[in-house]
Design a protein that fits this description.
Number of strands: 42
Structural class: mainly beta
Helix content: under 10%
Shape: elongated
Distance between the termini: 153 Å
Radius of gyration: 47 Å
Number of helices: 5
Strand content: over 45%
Largest sheet: 36 strands, mixed
Length: about 800
C-alpha cells in the first residue's frame, strides 16, 4: 500500500510539474530562465505571456550570440512542443510586428557552437512579419510585409513560400524599393517576381530552377551617375540561364552609351556573351569612340572564346580596331575548373600587331603624327595572381613628332627582349635628316625606369622654316616616374635659328581664333638632373630681334634635381651685326660667359661698332706768329669708329658708347650712330625723327645729357634723355627705363612730345593741349596702351 501511495504521489508530483511548466504562464517564465542559462549567448525577454504547450506571446526579446544581435519588438507563436522528442520544431503559426537582426563580421578565434545543432527539422506552416530590418556590416536593408507558408528546413535545405511586399534600402542619394515573391521546395526554386527600383533605374528577375534552368533578368540604368557620381552615361543588360540542371547555359547582352569619366570614355558598346561550363563559350563585343585621356580609338571589335579541356580552361583572344591593329593569342588555366582559385598556374601566348602605330599616342599626348609598324610576342607563365611575362618586341619604320620640343624622329627600328623578370633590353637605330642614330638600353617594368644611351652623327632633329638643327649626340638618359636624368656630350654641327621678336606685332590675321587656353611656356623642369656639355660648331647662325650672326663656344650645363640649372663655359659670336639707333653695327666682340651662374643669366661683354668716313681738316699755323689769320686746310679723309658696348649680366646690362680714335664726346658718338655725322654737321630736323623711329637698344645708359647744341640747331622745344615707366614681366614690377625724347611746341596751346626707349623697345607719343589758364588735356599713345588725362594746375608763390 505504501508503494502505491509513493508511486501515486510521485506521479502527481511529476504531472503537476509538467502541467506547471507546460500549461501555466509562471511555468513558461521558469522554462525561459532555465533555457537562457543553457543555450549559448545571452537571452533577455521583457514580457512573456501564454503557455509553453500552446501559444506564446513575447515583447522586447533581445538575443546576442557571437557577433549577431536579434531584437523582436512583438511576436506571437503557436506550436507543438511534443515534436521536440523527435528533434523537430513544428511552428503552426508565427506573427511578428518588427524584427531587427544585426551582424558585424569579425574574426573568430575559437570554433563557435551551433545553438540549433540538436535539431533535425524546423517547419513553419504559416508566418507573417510586418517589418524585418537587416544590418550586415553597417549595410542596412528593410523588408516589409513578409509572408511565409509551408516553410521548412532539414538543416541542409529550406522549403518556403516567401513574399516581401516592400523592400526599402538606400543607394547613393536614391531610395531603393522592391518586391519579392518566391517558392523554395527542397532543391527547387521558383521566382514569381523579384524587382528593385532606384530613381530611374530598375532590375527585374523571374523564372525557376528545377530539373532545368529558366531564369531571366533585365537591368536598366539610364543615368548611371545617380549611383556612381564619377561616371556618366547609360547601361542596360539582360540575359537568361537555361539548360540542364548540371550544365546551365548563360546568355547575356550588354549595351552602354556615353559611358565615361575624366580619364576614359566609351561612346557606344555592345556585348554578347554565352557561357557553358562543359562546352565552348564566347564573348563578342563592339565598341566605338574609345578615349583614354587625349587619345582615341575610333572602333574596336573583339572575340574571346573559352574551351574546357578536361579540367583545364582554354581562352582564345582576338581583338581588332579600325586601323587593322590586332591582339591574338591563347591563355590556358591548367586547373581552371577543378581548382578555381587565383593561385592556380597560368600559361599563355599573345601576339600584338600594330599596322598603324597611332595608338602609341596613348603613351603620351606629346607624341604627334606617329606612323609605322610594331609587333610584340608575349609569353605568360607563373600564377594567375602573379603572372610572369617574357616578351619580344619589334618597332619598324616608326616616325613621330614632338612639337613642343620641335623634334622630328624618323625611321626608328628597335628590337627588344626580356632578359630577366621585369627587365627588358632593347637596341635599335633611327634616322633624322641625313644622319643615323643608335639607341640601346633597358626598361624595368616593375620600377618603371627607362635607362638608355643615344648616339648619332649628323642628326637633323629639327627642320622647319625657322629652325634647323643638326647635331652629334652622345647621351645617357634615365627616366623614372618622378625624375629625369640626362648626361653626356652634344656637338651641334649646324644650326639655323630665326627667333621671332613679337614686339611690333599689333594685330592678328583674321583666320586666327582666340581661345581661353593657357599658353604653354617651354622651360627646364626642376625634376631634371643635367650634366650636359654642348659644343658649338662653326656653322651656327642665329637671328634674333636686330641681331644676326654666327656663334661658337662650349658650355657645360649642370642641374641638381629640384634646383635651377647652372653653366660653366662661354658662347661667343664669330661674326655678326646688330641694328641700333637706325644703323647696322658690326659685332667686333660678343661673349656670354658662365662661371657657375644660372643658365638664364650669363655675364655679357658685347661690342658693336660702325665705321664712318670723315674729312680730315688741319688748321694752318706759323712757328713764329701765334695767329696768322690763315684758313684751315683739307688734308684728306679719315676713318672714325663709333660703337656701343654692353657689359654686366643679361638681366642687368650696362650700356656705354666708345670711339676710335678715342676723344669723341658722348654727344658726337650718339650723333654718329643716329645721323651718321657729328652734331655740328646736323642740318635736317627730319633726320632726328627718322633716326629715332628705329631706335631700340638694351642696357643701362651712361650717355648722360644729350647736347643743348642739337636742341638749338633743330629749333626743338625739347630734346634730351628722359625716362618712362614700363612693366617688367620677369619681376612683375613697374620699373623706370631711359628714353630719348624730342618735343616741339606747334602752336600757342599745342605741344607734341615723342619718346623712344634706349634700353627697352618702347615708343610713346604725347600730345598736350592747353584749354585754359588752369585746364589742359593730354593724351598718351603706345603699342601697349592708350589714354588721356585732364589736368588742373594752380600756380602759387
Amino acid at each position: 500500500m505504501k508503494k502505491i501511495i509513493f508511486s501515486l504521489t510521485l506521479f502527481i508530483f511529476f504531472a503537476s510539474g509538467i502541467y506547471y511548466l507546460g500549461y501555466t504562464t509562471p511555468g513558461l517564465h521558469t522554462l525561459i530562465r532555465v533555457t537562457s542559462q543553457l543555450i549559448p549567448g545571452q537571452l533577455t525577454i521583457q514580457q512573456i505571456d501564454g503557455t509553453f504547450a500552446d501559444q506564446i506571446q513575447i515583447r522586447n526579446l533581445h538575443y546576442h550570440y557571437n557577433s549577431t544581435d536579434v531584437v523582436i519588438n512583438e511576436a506571437k507563436m503557436t506550436w507543438s512542443p511534443r515534436y521536440l522528442i523527435n528533434q523537430e520544431i513544428i511552428i503552426e503559426e508565427l506573427s511578428a510586428n518588427e524584427i531587427n537582426i544585426k551582424n558585424v563580421s569579425q574574426k573568430q578565434t575559437t570554433q563557435a557552437s551551433n545553438p540549433l545543432a540538436y535539431l533535425k527539422h524546423v517547419v513553419i506552416s504559416k508566418a507573417s512579419i510586418k517589418q524585418l530590418n537587416l544590418n550586415y556590416n553597417q549595410q542596412p536593408i528593410t523588408l516589409k510585409q513578409i509572408n511565409l507558408s509551408r516553410a521548412g528546413t532539414g538543416m541542409t535545405h529550406l522549403d518556403a513560400d516567401i513574399e516581401v511586399n516592400n523592400i526599402v534600402d538606400q543607394l547613393a542619394n536614391h531610395s531603393i524599393t522592391g518586391h519579392l515573391n518566391l517558392n523554395l521546395r527542397h532543391d527547387e526554386l521558383e521566382i514569381k517576381q523579384a524587382s528593385l527600383f532606384a530613381g530611374k533605374a530598375s532590375a527585374e528577375v523571374s523564372g525557376f530552377v528545377k530539373k532545368k534552368w529558366d531564369i531571366h533578368w533585365k537591368i536598366n540604368a539610364p543615368q548611371i551617375k545617380d549611383f556612381l557620381p564619377h561616371l556618366s552615361g547609360s547601361l542596360m543588360t539582360s540575359g537568361q540561364i537555361q539548360g540542364e540542371r548540371q550544365n546551365p547555359i548563360i546568355k547575356m547582352s550588354l549595351l552602354a552609351n556615353q559611358f565615361k569619366n575624366d580619364i576614359y570614355a566609351v561612346e557606344h558598346l555592345e556585348s554578347e556573351q554565352t557561357i557553358q561550363l562543359s562546352r565552348p563559350s564566347s564573348l563578342e563585343f563592339k565598341a566605338k569612340g574609345l578615349r583614354y585621356k587625349d587619345s582615341t580609338i575610333t572602333a574596336l571589335t573583339g572575340t574571346i572564346t573559352s574551351e574546357p579541356q578536361r579540367q583545364a580552361l582554354l581562352l582564345n583572344i582576338k581583338l581588332f580596331d579600325d586601323q587593322q591593329n590586332r591582339l591574338t593569342g591563347m591563355i590556358k588555366l591548367p586547373q581552371g575548373l577543378s581548382h578555381p582559385s587565383l593561385s592556380q598556374p597560368i600559361e599563355g601566348n599573345l601576339k600584338f600587331e600594330l599596322a598603324n602605330v597611332a595608338i602609341i599616342k596613348l603613351i603620351s599626348s606629346e607624341l604627334k603624327n606617329p606612323i609605322g609598324h610594331a609587333s610584340a610576342d608575349l609569353e605568360l607563365n607563373g600564377k594567375l595572381n602573379d603572372p610572369k611575362l617574357n616578351a619580344k618586341i619589334a618597332l619598324q619604320q616608326i616616325s613621330f613628332d614632338l612639337p613642343r620640343y620641335v623634334v622630328n624622329i624618323r625611321q626608328l627600328n628597335v628590337n627588344g627582349q626580356m632578359t630577366a623578370p621585369d627587365l627588358m633590353s632593347f637596341k635599335g637605330t633611327f634616322s633624322a635628316g641625313k644622319g643615323v642614330g643608335q639607341v640601346e638600353g633597358q626598361l624595368n617594368l616593375n620600377q618603371r625606369v627607362l635607362t638608355t644611351s643615344i648616339t648619332g652623327h649628323d642628326l637633323q632633329t629639327v627642320n622647319t622654316h625657322k629652325y634647323q638643327l643638326t647635331l652629334d649626340p652622345k647621351l645617357n638618359l634615365k627616366l623614372s616616374p618622378t625624375d629625369i636624368s640626362l648626361t653626356g656630350d652634344v656637338f651641334i654641327s649646324n644650326a639655323r635659328l630665326i627667333l621671332t621678336d613679337y614686339y611690333n606685332v599689333v594685330s592678328l590675321p583674321d583666320e586666327v581664333k582666340l581661345t581661353t587656353k593657357t599658353k604653354q611656356q617651354l622651360s627646364i623642369p626642376l625634376n631634371l638632373a643635367l650634366d650636359l656639355t654642348l659644343n658649338l660648331g662653326k656653322d651656327i647662325f642665329v637671328t634674333y630681334d636686330k641681331f644676326e650672326g654666327t656663334l661658337g663656344g662650349k658650355l657645360t650645363i649642370n642641374q641638381v634635381s629640384g634646383h635651377p640649372a647652372t653653366a660653366i663655359g662661354e658662347i661667343h659670336a664669330i661674326k655678326g651685326h646688330y641694328n641700333t639707333y637706325g644703323k647696322t653695327l658690326k659685332i667686333s666682340e660678343a661673349r656670354m660667359m658662365y662661371s657657375g651662374n644660372p643658365l638664364t643669366n650669363p655675364g655679357i661683354y658685347i661690342k658693336a661698332q660702325k665705321k664712318f668716313e670723315t674729312l680730315a681738316i688741319q688748321k694752318s699755323n706759323n712757328n713764329f706768329i701765334s695767329d696768322t689769320g690763315l684758313q684751315s686746310a683739307y688734308t684728306g679723309e679719315s676713318m672714325i669708329i663709333a660703337g656701343v658696348q654692353l657689359t654686366g649680366s643679361l638681366r642687368h646690362p650696362n650700356v656705354g658708347l666708345y670711339s676710335l680714335p678715342a676723344g669723341l664726346s658722348q654727344q658726337d658718338i650718339l650723333s654718329y650712330l643716329m645721323f651718321g655725322h657729328p652734331q655740328a654737321n646736323a642740318k635736317n630736323p627730319g633726320a632726328v625723327l627718322s633716326a629715332l623711329s628705329s631706335i631700340y637698344a638694351g642696357g643701362n645708359s651712361k650717355i648722360g645729357n644729350v647736347t643743348d647744341k642739337l636742341k638749338s640747331t633743330f629749333a626743338l622745344s625739347d630734346f634730351g634723355i628722359d625716362s618712362a615707366d614700363i612693366y617688367d614681366t620677369e619681376t612683375n614690377k613697374i620699373v623706370s627705363t631711359p628714353t630719348i625724347g624730342i618735343g616741339k611746341k606747334l602752336g600757342k596751346n599745342l605741344y607734341l612730345r615723342f619718346r623712344m626707349g634706349v634700353l627697352n623697345p618702347i615708343s610713346i607719343l604725347n600730345i598736350r593741349y592747353q584749354l585754359s589758364k588752369h585746364f589742359s588735356l593730354q593724351s598718351e599713345s603706345s603699342p601697349n596702351e592708350n589714354g588721356a588725362d585732364l589736368f588742373y594746375t594752380v600756380e602759387t608763390d
